[in-house]
Structure formats: structure tokens, C-alpha cells
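Give me the fold.
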Amino acid sequence: MSSRGVALLGCQVPRVSLVPECVWSEADDAAFLAASYGLVPDEWQMLVLQGWLGRRADGRWSAPISGIAVPRQNGKNGILEIVELYKMVALGRKILHTAHEVKTARKAFIRLKHFFGEKRDDPTAKFPELNALVHEVRNTNGQEMILLKNGASIEFIARSKGSGRGFTVDDLVCDEAQELSEESLAALLPTISSAPSGDATQTYMGTAPGPSMDGEVFTRIRNEGVKGSNDRLAWFEWSVEGNVNAPAKTPNAIDVYDRTVWAATNPSLGRRLNIETIADEILALGWENFARERLGVWASETHSQVIDAQAWADRAAELEDIPTDGRYAFGLDMPPDRSQISVSAARRPDEGKVHVECVYYESAGLGTEAIVSWIAERWPTLTAVVIDGQSPAMSLVPEFLRNKVRVTVTGAGEMARACGMFFDAVRDDKLTHFDQEEINDALSGAKKRTIGQAGGWGWDRRDPDVDISPLVSTTLALYGVMTSKRKPGRKTKVVVM
């Protein structure tokens, strides 16, 4: 349904809303102050303010952690301006406003400076009564700051691994949170540990992270908001959920051309956002990017299997169909928590398809030495033993060396090449496998991570809910048997555990 010709207005109610219990909210006071200076919140913005500025019976913030995910250009920064203006003028709080890029932090500074003027005693200030509160305005690029006579302040910085050091504030703001790294957050959080007010807050604002973005922090906070179990978090999200891999063709599919879907995910549609401009975005962005940027769909909900499921199923083979001679190699991997160890083998005959299988997948705590010994026994007949340089399985390399086994360690470039080989072998029907559950499960949940700037990618280990180690070990085994120049001294039979 396209709803063409119908005047649509954006939905003012988010799909996901988590608001901790509060006794009262300072949202009305904040909105009144902002409206006095021309910044009037929309209905949806007011809803967010109510949740972010709630107070408990003891007077402390009911939501010391707050966040919002809404598609771009809807006006989430307007909410933040209202909050920052109120906290400075009425509450005298100290704020650190961070953004991923310098230009974004600078724009936020310029917007807030609009209320206070260019400098102290600025005769051109639009609002003289607010300018009268100013002690100092620092305009130096990269050091922007507004300091008020009541002790309130706001400083604007672009994030880096150490950019937050030296600050002590009440409120930490992370704009563009879809690009907030763990290292940056580790540097920033101590800025509020000794908050002068004794009642610190964290605010996270952004859009659904793209595949090449460092969105782990924002995704973690968002997941808490979706679960609804954190009583210290106020979370608001305008988005849709469903299958966007094949619009309008699969169950629960999202039709990206459905304008009512646009209205559901963009609260400012028909106000700040023009519907025809949005229509043009689909062509420019492509439907997957459009689903993320305009419909607020997160990667966990847009995930499509990297290796086509039907193609993978079609490559399954019976024991009698696999090669019994030729070169073969092992690949090893562990998940980040080191709970399992996966060993896979790849056999490359002189003619015909390569065969891959997972030959060991068990608890890593029960016999890694035995696994090393088992592989060492076969080393004279092996083409390669391969471990990725970023894998927890790298801890086994010294033991392999003691057993006189030479391990091929892959870097980022080799991993990108290995994943490309694996993808091509399945697509081009040059590979067989045993239809093993552990590899199938890993493939169904595996995602890509970008490597370099030339289109390379590797398997993404960061999802704690998916153990991809059998897939990684299989990919590495294939890489080893296809690329190693080592020539074993004799032919061998099929690997049997």
C-alpha cells in the first residue's frame, strides 16, 4: 500500500518506549523555557522530554541513562537543545557534549550559542536576558565552550580514545552514538564519576548503525531498551521490525515503498521532512541502506545470510562422494569467551571439488593439549594448519611450535581473501560439506565485518549470541589447502576423528 495522494504526518508515538517510574518530570518547565525563546517541542519531542527529565521521590533523576534512536533529520537535536538549555539556565549543571566528528560538535555549539550570544555583554545578542547570564563564550575551533555566571557550563568536543580526559561534569552527552567506540566511552565515563551535582546522567543519541560503524556501545544500550528490563534507562526508538531482505515477498516483509511505513518511523514527516524527498532517497540509497537510514531498522533485524542458504544446502554430500586423496589442511578457531574449540578440515583433490568439514567442536576446557597432539601427529601429511591472528585460538600457537607444527597465522588481508574464497567456492559449486549442524548454525547467524577500503570483509565475531567458530575454522581450512605451498611427504586417507 503506497498511500499516494494522502497527506501523511509522522507518528508521534515510538515503536519502542522504556520510561522508568518517576514521581514528577521537569519536562514542562524545560519546554516552557525553550518555547520562550522560540524553540517549541513537537508532541513526540515532548514525550521524550518527559522520560528523560523524570524525578524520583528523593529528587534524583529517575533515568540517569537516556537515549533515542530515530532516523536522520527528524529533530532529535532539538530535544537535546531544550535539555541542555534548561540544565544550564535553571539547574546550573556542567555538560560535556561529544560527537563523532568535529563538524557535528561545532554545529551543536553554534545552535546553542544562538540563545546566549557570541560573547559576554554581546550587544547583538538575540536574547539579552540570556546573554546577561554569560560569563564566557569560547569560540576557538575544537575548544568551544559556554560558561554561565551561575557556574553552569557546556563544552563541545569530538570523541577520541583520550578526548574526555581532564573534564569533570554532571552530564555526558554522546551524539552520533552509532559511532561511539568502547575506547572512547572508557575515556569519557570517568568525567561524570565525580559529578559536582552528585547526580550524573548519560545521554546517547543516534541512528541505527551501518555495517562499517563502531556501533557496539549504542547497540548494547538499545538492546537494554528493547528488552525493557533496565529501570535506570529511558529509551525511545522510532523504527519498524520485520524482514526487509526481500520487500513484499516474504512473511512479515517490510515494503520500503509503503509511505505509511515512512510515517511510522519518521515523527517529523509532513513537518520538517518532505515526503517526496524521502521517495527520492530509495533510488539514491538502495533499499537496504534506506531501511536503516530512513526506517530505523537495526542490523540485527536486517540481517540476511551471507552465504545463500539454498546454495549451501545444495553443496551437501554423502561420505562416498567426498575425495579420499589430495592435499588437506586444518583450521582452528575459538569464540571470544574461549568456551569452545573448533577444528575443521579441508581436502583438495587433484581433480574435483574441495571438501570441508568440522572434525572437532567441543568445550575448549577439555583437552586443548590433546587436540594439539592429535594435529601434530598428522602434521607430516598436512598442507597447513591455519589460525587467524585475532582469534583466541592464537594461545595454542606456542604449544604447536613445541610440537614442531608450523602454524599459518592470517592477518586482516588474508582473512578477507579467505572469506572471499569460501564465498566463491559455495556460489560456484566448487565445494562439498557434510551438512553439519554446527556449521549450519554459524552460517545462519554470521555477519560480515568490513576489512579495508576495497570491499574486503571477514566474519564478525562480536555477536555473543552466535558462535561462528566452526565457520571461521572451516574458512581457514579452505584457505590453507588452497594457498599453502607446503608439499607433504606422502598421500593420506580421509580424516576421521
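The domain at 16-237 is CATH 3.40.50.300 (Rossmann fold).
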